[in-house]
Design brief:
alpha/beta; Rossmann fold; four-stranded parallel beta sheet; globular
């Protein structure tokens, strides 16, 4: 992770800021894991007949995910803040403050015209792996995709390596078991939404043989404008695009597309 961050066009102070945040997140996750082992050693519920919504970005997965979360009582989708804090102990600590934090933070996450979100809205499970270990599709998209690839096949393989991860499935299993054990509405079925899991269907069925999978398909060419706008808005907040050399930025845009 440190090596990949160093290759990204980050200023020195942002590089060390991200490492500092990562360091404290590791401490927080260690604390949450330790407290859960002490006070919540085994979730009371097991995952049965989970539902997975899968599709590439900008294909309508967010709309369907949030609609099903609001419409079907038995389905338990996880909110953004819960993906960031997957441990029961951490959720109990932070829950009283989330609404106030959300009021100040929501408008800073994404441009609401492109993608309206917030700590109290359902989001893609890929975020959980990003916060846990700076890994997966999001880390590749915002930090590794500046790399120059000598062929499209190598780019494709690197993207597959970033997305096809056993640990993604295992982490999802853990956070949903914990979430279901806390469900106040007696929800009993996991509702997952992810981009990268489209490359992990075999792993899903191996882990959850009774899973139901919904795949949304949209012409990729139709998603390019909004995908670029969304990525651009995040890159601007991470890097300040005006400080990045034109050839480096051109290389970035030529990779994901």
């Amino acid at each position: 992770m440190i090596k990949e961050l160093w290759k990204a066009p980050l200023s020195i102070w942002k590089y060390f800021l991200i490492l500092t945040v990562r360091f404290y997140l590791n401490i927080l996750f260690f604390l949450g894991s330790t407290l859960d082992r002490l006070f919540y050693p085994s979730p009371k519920r097991k995952i049965e007949s989970p539902v997975f919504i899968i599709g590439h970005p900008r294909s309508g997965t967010t709309f369907l995910h949030r609609y099903l979360m609001d419409s079907i009582n038995e389905l338990d989708g996880i909110l953004l803040w819960q993906l960031m804090f997957p441990f029961i102990s951490l959720r109990k600590i932070f829950k009283p403050f989330i609404k106030n934090i959300d009021k100040h933070l929501s408008s800073q996450l994404y441009n609401p015209v492109i993608h309206k979100t917030g700590l109290l809205k359902g989001e893609t499970d890929d975020i959980a792996l990003f916060f846990k270990s700076f890994d997966g599709l999001f880390f590749w998209l915002y930090f590794k995709a500046f790399k120059e690839y000598i062929s499209t096949s190598l780019l494709k393989q690197d993207l597959i390596n970033a997305s096809k991860l056993d640990k993604m499935i295992e982490h999802i299993d853990v956070i949903y078991m914990k979430s279901l054990s806390l469900s106040e509405n007696k929800k009993n079925r996991m509702l997952s939404k992810s981009f990268s899991l489209i490359l992990n269907i075999d792993l899903i069925l191996k882990k959850f043989p009774d899973a139901k999978i919904i795949i949304l398909i949209r012409d990729p060419l139709e998603t390019i404008p909004s995908s670029m706008s969304l990525a651009n808005s995040i890159l601007q907040k991470i890097y300040n695009l005006k400080t990045i050399k034109k050839d480096v930025l051109d290389q970035y845009w030529s990779n994901p597309l």
